[in-house]
Amino acid sequence: MHQDVPFPHATSSPGPRQQATLARSFERSGRSLHSGRHATVRVSPAPAGHGIVFRRHLKDGRAIDVPAHWHYRESQPLSSALRRDGVLVRTIEHLMASLSALRVDNVLAEIDADELPIFDGSATPWCEAIRAVGRREQGLPCRMIRVLRTVAVENGRRRLQIEPGRGLHITGHVALAHFGSIDWSGAITPDAFEREIAPARSFGRYMRAMAGRAYGYMMRTDFLQGVSPRSAALLVRGHVLGGMRVPGEPVRHRILDLVGDLALAGHPVEGRIAAFHTGHELNHALVSALMRDSKAWELV
């Protein structure tokens, strides 16, 4: 039996719950961060056990399904990407984070390009779209990945670890020139994510972003062709152009990306995470290390 239900209330733990999908479809369009091209995404309900699946509609008329699973992850600069049978889907992290945090387990996301829209650089547009159509429980239990022992990865000063704990709790830290140390810590619940994490935008130094866009243009490669103050929080010395949307916006966006990357494990994850200067590569390294260590977790 399918039942339309409100989104879960703020709680320290997802707890036992049923799988859920969307109550109905939504469609969103916009410019992409790296290609700079326009893309349209249609996100639709899917049956229990389906998971999150991206469907690329190709110019030759074919439609290729790419499951949002860590096995299909491909390294791409400044984004999270999947590739299956030669078909690429990238910049998926903000949609993945929004679905995960709002506890929507099964959807089909159809896209007419290889990259999702970036919108304003935050996850708020995705959250608003999900909220607008609603959430539907599906009558089957949602299985969780429960962490049993600490797993850690590091690269220089970057370190990311997960240890046993109830719910999903993240402590994040970054230190930026002219900004100093920036920290955030809290449980990732639907309310907390929408209020404190989703508004945080992708960020970077203004001069580096503009240089990257110029490089991509000159080399005729899809790199930062859609970056601008409308699609990212651009830093100039100790300031953000237009101001920060939330206090400590950079560290909150790193946590946003981490929530999205963690969702590629294929099931919601319960544990306590400490993230120091993390980014997409380290996030995916943690997911891979955790999933390959069968004694570090159990599916409950």
UniProtKB/TrEMBL annotation:
Pfam families: LpxC
Domain of life where this protein originates: Bacteria
Keyword Metal-binding: yes
Role description: Catalyzes the hydrolysis of UDP-3-O-myristoyl-N-acetylglucosamine to form UDP-3-O-myristoylglucosamine and acetate, the committed step in lipid A biosynthesis.
Active site: H280
Pathways per UniProt: Glycolipid biosynthesis; lipid IV(A) biosynthesis; lipid IV(A) from (3R)-3-hydroxytetradecanoyl-[acyl-carrier-protein] and UDP-N-acetyl-alpha-D-glucosamine: step 2/6
Record flagged with keyword Methyltransferase: no
Keywords for this protein: Hydrolase, Lipid A biosynthesis, Lipid biosynthesis, Lipid metabolism, Metal-binding, Zinc
Cofactor(s) this protein requires: Zn(2+)
Listed transmembrane segments: none
InterPro entries with a match to the protein in the record: Ribosomal_Su5_D2-typ_SF, UDP-acyl_GlcNac_deAcase, UDP-acyl_GlcNac_deAcase_C, UDP-acyl_N-AcGlcN_deAcase_N
Chain sites annotated for binding Zn(2+): H94, H253, D257
Family indicated by similarity: Belongs to the LpxC family.
Enzyme class: hydrolase
Listed EC numbers: 3.5.1.108
Name this protein carries in UniProt: UDP-3-O-acyl-N-acetylglucosamine deacetylase
Reactions that this protein is recorded to catalyse: a UDP-3-O-[(3R)-3-hydroxyacyl]-N-acetyl-alpha-D-glucosamine + H2O = a UDP-3-O-[(3R)-3-hydroxyacyl]-alpha-D-glucosamine + acetate
